[in-house]
Amino acid sequence: MAKIFIPKEFEQKYQKLLGSDYKDFIECCKTKLPKSIWANSLKINPKKLHAAFSEKGIQLKQLPFHENAFEISGIERPGSLQEFREGLFNLQEKASMLPAIALNPKGSERVLDMCAAPGNKTMQLATLMDGEGKILAIDKNVERFRSLNYNMKKFGLSKSVKTVCANALELDKKNYFDACLLDAPCSSEGLIRKEVDALKGWSQQLVEQKAALQKKLILKAFDSIKKGSALVYSTCSLSPEEDEEVIRHLLQKRKLTFDDIKFNGFKLRKGIGEIGYRVLPQDNNSQAFYLCKITKQ
Fold first, then answer.
1. Assigned CATH for 36-91
2. If we measure between CA atoms, which residue out of 88, 81, 129 comes closest to residue 107?
3. Taking a C-beta distance cutoff of 8 angstroms, is the pair 101, 124 a contact?
4. Catalytic residue among 115, 180, 186, 236
5. β-sheet bridge partners, residue 134
6. Catalytic residue flag (residue 29)
7. pLDDT tens for residues 126-175?
């Protein structure tokens, strides 16, 4: 792998934040990220997809936290496969799969997927709901919204998913949804294993700008769900400003309880102040991630 770009400011921040874990963290970030996929079980049984790939000499290794989740090897570009073009599976980093699983939506529910494009987690939600219920997938970025619509058609989700190109902050539905997933726009720190230049535009100022937006989004997300309903908040960042401090902001403004999250065969670390959970790359050979599940009181 090419040498990754790490700003000095980032290095200093994370040395302080991670302490003795920093060395393992940064060394893992310099290694190649394994490829993983999520099977579209609405179109094909994951076991049949496994068998079809085996016949082609492509290896799928079942990930222990869900039957639709696999690591894939034996092919350099899985996106070139006919099965990908037909929407039988989607390329998705394994830590990125966790928020939708944690939300655990039911088929009878109305679910909000905020900041949804390009639709990886939307497809996950639909498969977890067995293609039933209704999902509202919102994104304001026009180019990303085109990708969202394309993917919903490819995955065969046009009936169960409604897509809207709009600013989620202008959503006018209150106490309406049974569950909400907010995978918030962030400083993308966790992507350095996927893109060597992911931190080229990183700065503490960027982190603080994203955190300000995230605090607005999480209030809107919380207000959109019914009492007793669940909200999962996630980012591909480990900055406390974008993670625990966003949840703390919500806690100061609204009444909620925290839900435990566990995944078979996947290590989570408690967040700062016991708020949410952190995924460090070296623990699971994944990207960095943060997630928190709360219930509205």
1. 3.30.70.1170
2. 129
3. yes
4. 236
5. 110
6. no
7. 999 999 999 999 999 999 999 999 999 999 998 999 999 999 999 999 99
